[in-house]
Amino acid sequence: MGLIHIDLFTTLDGVAQAPGGPEEDNDGGFAYGGWQAPLLDELVGEQINAGMAGMDALLLGRRTYSIFAAYWPFQEEGVDWSIARLFNSLPKYVASRQLLTPQWANSTHLGPDTAAAIRELRERHQNIHVIGSLNLVQTLFAERLFDRLTLWVYPILLGSGKQVFADGVVPSNLVLVEPAVTSPTGTVTLRYALADGMPGVGDMSGDDRLNSAS
């Protein structure tokens, strides 16, 4: 069975809305579109590229798909040629409640039962990546329908905007699958895997580890 990877850029206060540009998503009057751009650096770029290793399908929400479809097919001769070649060649699946006729080559609109369609995709691909697509991501969290979660956490606070973890997240355990990487701008790359079980609870009042530190 293949893995579903969720790849998200987020601020320290959990905002993941419109990292790439001012016109990406201004729902709710969001005024900080493009907040990621001033903090990009070479190491972040390397980490993003490393995360694409083995990707054999893209799974996107309607808005992110529309943005990608209007950009990447026209970039094969530009500075982003390697990413463009990858994205343009991969099978792409669009999760949308609205009827959509995909215009990007190798694209398929999933049926009305998104969760069932995604489970079927796991039988056909090894590494399916979800980039952005916050509404879709909330469905994946609620269904525990993901295997890896990579967060690029940027050292800014925005105070408002669409959140990575909105209402409906199912309590889950995650494990860090490799050491965190911090870039010169203070951006931290965190790669997690979904783990079994539910988060535990306890009482720290008698914990000797705390007493010994005082």
Automatic annotation (TrEMBL):
Domain called Bacterial bifunctional deaminase-reductase C-terminal: residue spans: 5-174
Ranges that cross the membrane: none
SUPFAM superfamilies linked: Dihydrofolate reductase-like
Single GO molecular function: 5-amino-6-(5-phosphoribosylamino)uracil reductase activity
Superkingdom of the source species: Bacteria
Gene Ontology BP terms: riboflavin biosynthetic process
Pfam families with a match to the protein in the record: RibD_C
Protein name, UniProt field: Deaminase
